[in-house]
């Protein structure tokens, strides 16, 4: 039962990561890292596929070994936060327009305190 939970969670995380490649509000790499964790608990073959993936593998390994986020990843996250903030300020009514500002401040400050891999 636990293995099935992690297997389904891994695919859901990977799906959210894929969606995040196109939506600025949804990050890609954290969901892929979560998928790798879930697949490590349920499917060693899928975990190996993610760890060896040419795009995501280095991010997964850096996170596992050092808790590191690349400079490029930090900049990409900051740009995504900026786009989300601008969109919210244009389209969302007060006070909802402040939600991305708060999320960016909290999450962005955490991201920028991580070591770089």
From TrEMBL:
RNA-binding listed as a keyword: no
TM region positions: 12-40, 75-94
InterPro entries the UniProt entry points to: DUF454 (IPR007401)
Keyword RNA-binding found: no
Record's keyword terms, sorted: Membrane, Transmembrane, Transmembrane helix
GO cellular component, one term: plasma membrane
Pfam families attached to this UniProt entry: DUF454 (PF04304)
Name of the protein described by the UniProt record: DUF454 domain-containing protein
Natural source organism: Sphingopyxis witflariensis
